[in-house]
Sequence to fold (291 residues):
Amino acid sequence: MRLLPLRRSFLLSCAAAVLAGCASEPPQPDAEPSLAHASLPVQLLMTEGFVPVHRALAGQLMIPTQIRAEPGYGAPHVVVQELMQYLQQARCVDLVLAPRPVLQLLQAHGLVRQGRLYDVVRSPLIAIVQAGRPLPVLKDTEDAKQMLEAARSIAYPSADGSDFIEQKLFPELDLNAKVLPKSIKVFGPQVAQLVARGDAELGLLLRSELPRSAEVQVVGKIPHPLAYEAVYSAGIAGQACSTAGAQLLARFYQREAAMHDWSGSGWEPVAGVSQPPAPPVEHLDPAEYQP
Fold:
């Protein structure tokens, strides 16, 4: 575990209005938070995938916080195991920021409160090829199938999106037997490195994990109904010492993400944007993942 000793001042309006709920879940009524009732500093636990989002918005914040960042790499149930140990041992955590499926599993364990999750940003799954290579056509699912079949080698991420790729994308296109033997699963940003070097002919990864300097070309998003978007959300921890502080910060992230210019970052705001729901996690049994 790695502790980020970030203790910054954050500017939050105590009279901020409750934002409209995210498109993937109706808002649940909760008490209007007040900074006067917040225990400070507010304790945040986030996976490292959320750290770039936090940094992009941090200049607008002015409330004392302590932040711990955990790696959070792998499928949702793997990340849950990493976070559970800290949440069960920590004296106090107020807000957890992680991929939505991870928070849903933490809710099932009682480590994140039931009810509303505050969706903040999303990033779509895209396909990439080496710079200078011909771009495959990618307008519908048949194009996606032909693209995956034709590629001599494929790289895809071991974290966000890996479950979707292995359990839905490949099976729905009836490609498991053809595609898995020629595929390699690596840490997200490494996908672009392999494609740029020519070590993989095709890459699948989140748009937010694509380095701006990578010598690759974006083919496009995986088309509906097999599109995927990783959604990062905030959830109030079950043992929160400062519920008011957690609510203020969760709403801050939503509000500022909706107003932030994410151009070139690969992130998009969730609030106020129509989108398909985040992938369900019903197939994951929380009881199987006790540490």
In short: Confidence is low (pLDDT under 50) at residues 1-29, 272-291.
